[in-house]
Amino acid sequence: MTQPRRFSAAMPGTVDDALRLHLLRDDGQEDICLVTYAPSTGASRTSALLKEVVLPKPGERSVHGNASFTGDYVVRAASIAAAQGLGIALAHSHPHGSGWQQMSGPDKDAERSFAHLAHAITGHELFGLTVAGDRAWSARRWNADARCTEAESVRVVDSHLRVTWNEALRPVPMPQDSQIRTISGWGEQIQGLLTRLRVLVVGAGSIGHDIAIRLAATGLLHVAVMDFDDLERVNLDRMPTATWIDVALRRGKVEHALRQLRLAATAGRPDLHGFEDSICEDLGQRIALDYDVIFSCVDRPWPRAVLNQLAYSDLIPVIDGGIAIDPFADGNGMRNATWRSHVLRPGRPCMVCTRQLNPADVTLDQQGLLEDPEYIRQSGRQKPARQNVAALAISPAASQLAQFVSLVVAPGGLGEPGPLQYVLSTHQLIALPTSLNPECFFERTTGLGDARVELTGVHESAERTRAARRRAQRSTRIRLARAGDRLLTSAQRKWTELTCPESRL
Predict the structure, then answer these.
(1) Is the whole-model pTM more than 0.70?
(2) Cβ-based burial of 296 (10 A; exposed 0-12, middle 13-18, buried ≥19)
(3) How far apart are CA 309 and CA 224, in angstroms?
């Protein structure tokens, strides 16, 4: 059965500030204005990304306790939007309300009456938005036939990610006894907001694997991992949950991660997913657009460029990080190790601006040259260093998780702190510069959504890896070994249920 398509709205903090400045009046009366938006179309969710507030001119709207507006105002705003390939949203205020707002009869009539006109001029559906006095947003969309569909959430992307949930579509999950210590850290209200976030971890290696498990253990309902790669022997020294059996059975990193997530999850009905796609492929990117927050746990230029772009073009905060270990040239000892983390979002510098991504390397990666030994030899490039050790791999994971908690929980009222770097040799935590580059290409793409410059394409390495894994798993030896492993796992589970009855609760 096909699942119904989900809808949401999102805006950067600057647009939220401009809308509230106009709509939440000092005299307590309701007000209204129009705003342009760009669609962002994922695999199962479409988001309206708010861009430019089109304030009413004199005579285009009237405030009289409630607020009314003219058709000329709608035509003017819709014409501005159409010239840029955008749609329009009608925003109004309920200054005495709180939380997700239901529409009154006059509200519905006002929005419904202009749904067809907005669609005829812009080619996009009309979105309706309401801001309450407590800064909570609600949203819905109107198709050309004036039928209304409620959004599931509205996201404000700033140093503190603020999400207003539609309780009818995304009810608060029931707290579990296994979450008592977690909830005591920030309370049931924040736990209810936090656990409804859809979070995607791209890269299920040592760092991404740890992050995903911690998210599931925290009680998040919707956690997903994306990685096309296999578990290999070189992963075993940094992934304590992986075994020689996993390698011998040709398990993909996603398959292994899902097994661990199911064991770690504390939510009552967790919704856990694994995708053996590449974020560099069109489907992988469309899947990513269904999520509210993304963890970047990849070390190749091309996937990092795709994630770097989505943070701005589609208003999905990306929490990026990594580790670099600097051994002495003779291989005898360690000179230093550093790990860093930062949140990519409008208002923060992108990976290129912080010199964490070289655009020239992205092109080489797309062409497969960074995996070509002959090219590396002829170009004189050094093969990328990939040193990492289990004792330190948890540190960048912890740093990215701390950024996540700061972004969504805002301890002490403060959001994410900007880029941080820890220097192991001197044991210093350094706040890195956060100045923006006014010429930054990615910052200028903020809120473009589907009009973004596409960086995805055919990812030959991902296709080869998946094909080789499928061939190996069809072999008689692997199929018999996997059947035996399933029988052993089932026997262990039944033995646990017999000897520990409480495990069935």
Answers:
(1) yes
(2) buried
(3) 20
